[in-house]
Amino acid sequence: MTEQAIISRRGIASSLWNWVKLIAKDPAGLLGLVIVTLFILWSIIQGSLELLASYLHHPSLAYILLPHNPYAFGPPLKPPSLTYLFGTNGNGQDILSRILYSIPYSAAYPAFLVVLSAILIGAALGISAGYLGGWWDEVLMRVTDAFLSIPAIVLAIVVAVLLKASFIGMIYSFIIVWWPIYARLFRAETLRVKAMDYVAAAQLYGVSPLRLFFRYLFVNTVDPIIAYAMLDFGNVILAASILNFIGVGLQPGLPILGEMASDGLSGLPLAWWWAIFPSVTILIIALGFVLLGDRLQDIIGGRAAY
Amino acid sequence: MVGRDFAIFVIRRAINAVITLLLLIALMFIIIHIIYPTPLSLARLYAGPHPTYAQLLAIVKKYDLDAPLYVQFYNYLVGVFTGNLGFDPIYKEPVVEIIMYYLPITLTYIIPATVITVLLGTYLGAVAAGNRNKWLDYLIRAFYVFTWSSPPFFIAILLQLIFAYDLGLLPATGYVNELLPAPKSITGVPLIDALIEHDYAFAYSYFIHMILPMMAVVIYSFGIYTRIARNTMLDVLESDYVRLAYAKGLSRRVVVYGSYGLRNALIPLVTLMVLTFALAWTGAYVAEDVFLYHGMGYLVTSAITQVDPIMVYDITFFVAISVIIANFIADILYGILDPRVRVT
Amino acid sequence: MAVGLHTEVVVMLLSIRDLFVGYKMVMGALHVLDDINLDVDKGEIVGIVGESGSGKSTLGQAIARVLPGNAVVSGRIMVDGVNLLELSGGEMEKYRGTTVFMILQNPFTSLNPVKTVGYQLMEAARIRMVRSGERYSEDRAYEMAIQALKDLRFPDPEVIMLRYPHQLSGGQIQRVVLAMSLILKPKILIADEPTSALDVTIQAQVINLFKELSREMESAILFITHDISLAYVISTRIVVLYAGRIMEDGDVESIIREPMHPYTQGLIAGVPDLSKFVSGRVKLQSIPGNPPSFLDLPSGCKFHPRCPYVKDVCKVQEPPLTKHDNRVIRCWLYGGG
Question: Measured between CB atoms, which of C25, C52, C55 is closest to A305?
């Protein structure tokens, strides 16, 4: 584009606050940032309350921020009103409370567990493949090819089913399905970075392999991957909701967003709120990550200038 | 297109597809054997709910589940290539027959759905890129962002509420009017069978039942495709040869939508088309659940509810094969579109 | 008040006044070209010389109006009396190709990879025919393409027409693009480092072709390069660009014999084959340091941090373009109040 705008990583934004300002310059990015921040804050607060409640064996502790007890039975199939903002389901339980209660473990835990694990595994395999090359690289490429030849969710379903379709089984299944993309991304970035002089300089200098891995390779390959990971949080949340919808990855007793939508099918078309509100919640959370990730990718990819 | 070079190219791609298929078979075999390491646990897969110990032993005998791994793998390979994937404990029929009954029903609408998504998405992506930062761009971007973030069941439910329940234009559930007699099974594809026999009542009913699930799948896969189509177009429009084309005096319309912009953007998009087809399967799983549409998705969700893991496993296998075939077709398309590829 | 080189009342073919070009970037605005004032007459070959990062490609792209979308432009670019910057997109299209054409630096990315050479040449022929009012005929277009390829010394033009760009070498592609220029016959041809990606033997060939083109077509050629000796070989006039500003502008012989601007002197000092032409009155020194980044331009005269003759005023105020005999110069050493 211009002859010399060689923008180093430090040059785009030197601190987290600057990144936030850059993201917020775009109204869509700003909206995404707001949604994601609210989501994370709520997950931390409510999630901690839930953990505390189960640790202290005092369940109602987890309900203090909710309008109603998510398990309490009330008038069934009531449309949205002032008391029940999102209406009630077939059992008379307040849908809004159930949604708020389930957000931490329906959406936040799967998203962060899966993406972070996939990044670590993918980084380890991808960077080593890109750096060492040879048959190890060839093997990795072939294996990821095989994985990527099946639609992710389809594969996730079968592995989860094989793992007895429990919640943890679903998480493991996602991790297994998700790491190949990150391995590929890290490998591609490593190949690009490997060609750069400072890596060769470090090698000549005798830097230990572990230090090389972290301080040179990982740090410099991780940027575009962060932007992709942001989008991916949204992808995992959507994927988890799909699996939950068709009956995989459930925990008996705990309300789960995707499952609520599936239950709500029996309320159609009259009790539309039963299925719609959980679905819209998932939509908004995913939207936040999509907008944020999209904006980040534009900034890092140099497409954000105008 | 040089004839001989192209033929070699096609053959190489075909070999590649077969290798990927074999790797896939190996991968699935390994996954199963890691999760179920003992013959007895494997036997559970083929057993129905609550099998007795004697039943499990019988299954181990029947499928040679205690044989060494390479023998089992060999048996498995033979099974795959002869179309024998075992006997389903719930339906009490060979798995392959059950799948082959439902498979065409799903393919009949997800293939056209993928084609529509690709055509629509490519065009709108190009329009968005060509009108960068103007209102048309923002409109298209808003649309794809929303469809991308929507859970597929939300899309399906909305479609059902609006078109079937509110407006009453299309049927809400089912894949055909149950009261109509089914056509003779000639090709195995109900819609085509009906058309061959001039059974227009059946064909019409089948068709209108197909529209909503197809729309659901299109809208679901549309988001990610259009976003990447737009980004690809933007990148292509910044390349040197586009700049030279403008410098020559070609009009903006010709450059953006003609052989410089769109045509070059198609090349990387071909790989995306395969991804869209793969995504269409996911959309199908969910849409069939919402619309009670009796295809592969319905088979999968019932298999999950009925705890029939072997069915889920084999369905996945078929889905994967269809994606590998789609990949092969895309590779050929790639060779047609990009002259640089054919030489190797 | 800016001053151009030619002061005759004759309307120049190309007349640039107060051109400013900047880019909108993520971090804010980047100012690249400033106070560009230039007149070019037909038949002139102007060598625009500058180091990489001086804004010379931007200048070329600005004239052809093929800048990227985030560019901000102000000023006037007059071609035959018409201000190109005031034209709408559609009107500008008609000027590109037959009035202004540009050759790009990297031959390997200049041609459309999915179409044959013949298709792209005939496309140019069609544009030429339509603009001249001729009815388009495919046969005639084919003839024009073949003839252009022959003029560029291709021994087997019919075969080349069927080839794809990836099947040609860099030198061949550059000659194909030159063939396009022959077909289009633009009044102004801008060539952005057309020989940088080629090896030396091909370079010589291409340079000769340029000179022939200029004679044949009577076009004005703006030859952009970082290599002042190359500019010397090919140009009738040299314009020296630094940090987005014109530093010196004069006819080629006098600039080489008596370079006035310290930067120009430094450029020539780096080339022994040229330095020998310089008259004894001029003291040549090579220049230390690097050109500034556009993100962080120095105050006053942009060259002052590297200038061996820097004075206090240079650090504070940027000198304007002033006329000195037949030379235009931007330097406090030569007055300009």
Answer: C25
